[in-house]
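Example 3.2
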Amino acid sequence: MCTVGNGGSHSHLTAAKTEVLVYHILLFIFSPLTVALNLVVIISVAHFRQLHTPTNLLLLSLAVSDLLVGLVLMPAGIHLQLSCWFLGDSMCSLYTFFAWWSVSASVGDMVLISVDRYVAICDPLHYTNKARAMRSHITSITAQRSGKAVANKSELKAARSLGVLVVVFLICFCPYYILTLTGNSFIPSLSSYMTFVMYLNSCVNPLIYSLFYPWFRKAVRLIFTLQILQSDSCDSTMV
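Structure, written as tokens:
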């Protein structure tokens, strides 16, 4: 009996070490990848003037919070799994603040993105060009008749793309909160992997941009070919 007990304990310990190792490998891979991808998004939207739209500025805000996840939360997650926290109360408070801020910012950005798409679809002409209110009544009527269909088509396409972003966000975040609300967060391995899935959303967002936004793919090409260093690159045609 003693031998069997020791064997079971040893197997359990080995399995636990394997789970921790896998978790560390995942974080080591995705932490720098998350930072790099979101840095590209930040540079793209901040540098190219044509991308300074309300929707893209919301994506910029989301990319900043995602960058902090890869830069702070993922490495801290590795540290927490490796050992007890020994960086002091100040760093613990700072980590807690970044964790709370990044999650709150992500949720807030998603809400604002949803509102932005709602307004853009319900009133596309007012959203895209407020200056039309200064034109004559006849010109405004003509513009509405000729441009409303095009505007609706463009905004619906953008809404579908951002809809995917919101759905992926919910898929990544809901398991962690369901686990917490049901009281199962005390299971170490399950809690760790649900936390990783939540962090993974910060890495997936830029990949969604690359699939649905031609301007992002063009920006990546200009950045990696160093054309962004040219003096007039900020005025490049992106859309």
